[in-house]
UniProtKB/TrEMBL annotation:
Protein name stated in the entry: Xaa-Pro dipeptidyl-peptidase C-terminal domain-containing protein
GO MF annotation list: dipeptidyl-peptidase activity
Coiled coil (residue ranges): none
InterPro entries in the cross-refs: Galactose-bd-like_sf, Xaa-Pro_dipept_C
Domain Xaa-Pro dipeptidyl-peptidase C-terminal as annotated: residue spans: 16-58
Length: 67
């Protein structure tokens, strides 16, 4: 539904506050949303070494506004 590129720097933890472009979508009751994080996107420069990984800590969250 939406996406945003972000340059992750190697060598330690980072605090990231990423605002995604606004979008509206009706999610029927009982359905779920998913957040996908990836180390490669064919629309952007592929500068990741083979085997690149990301880790998301337990203190991570996503705020989703409801109307």
């Amino acid at each position: 539904m939406t996406h945003a590129p972000y340059t992750w720097l190697s060598g330690g933890r980072q605090v990231i506050d990423l605002a995604l472009p606004a979008t509206a979508w009706n999610v029927p009751a009982g359905h779920r949303l998913a957040l996908a994080l990836d180390t490669k996107d064919p629309l952007y420069l592929d500068a990741n070494p083979s085997g690149a990984a990301i880790a998301v800590s337990a203190s991570s969250w996503v705020d989703i506004p409801l109307r």
